[in-house]
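ESCALATION

Customer reports they have been waiting on this structure for their group meeting. Please prioritize. Original submission:
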Amino acid sequence: MQNIPLTDSVDDMTRRLFADAGIRSGMTVLDVGCSSGDVSFLLAQIVGQTGHVTGLDRDEIALDLASKRVQQLNLKNISFIQGDLTRPLPDCSPFNAAVARRVIMYLPNPVDAVRRIASLVRPGGIIAFLEHDATMVPGRRIPLPLQEKVNRWIWQTVERENADINIGFALPKILKDAGLTVEHIRAEAIIQTPETRYPTVPIIRAMLPRIIERGVATEAEIGLDTLEQRLLDEREKAGSLYVSDMVFTIWARK
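Update from on-call: job pushed to the front of the queue and completed.
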């Protein structure tokens, strides 16, 4: 799955999601759309040596990178398998939980995909998702033209990759239609202040080939070399908070 690089704020939200959903030491957990394994490593810390994390992704290159990271760290409680949510998934022993971060928004038939995920979870098991949503952003009291332009670059690129950029509002219905019992959903804002050095520029840098390929902006328009300072200058001049992103987290039971 395509991914925007994440931040400490989103990692904190992910940890809270897993803790509140009930993922604990000793559990077996499926990390769907694991890519190079960031969420899998976080889960491995939570489940400990008595638990196990299985990362699932369709990208062989990403899985190879994830496997090399596991070998380098000599971790025994993580493994990876290849699979595609648009097709039948590999046979596995039922997991205690399945999770996905920034995955559901990219799926053409999310209800069917969630059913496939749930089929690998034991009865009473946990299904937990984190998704970003563009419906209510950017949020600001006064215009911040550059911040808003950068926000558009990111979300227009994701939208042109056929992602559902309003997926947060759809999550409860998707899970219910997939036959799950929703226990809780919440939304949290990513807030930037005049003093915040939020990693916007690293995100744009990582996304640059995709931004250009999708015809959203040119390298000259973006001006990476000066973008960080221009963003800081604009926030400092405005002296105001800026909400750049909304993150929805939801968990349910099979």
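Sent to customer with the following note: The CA atoms of residues 111 and 174 lie 5 Å apart.
Escalation resolved.
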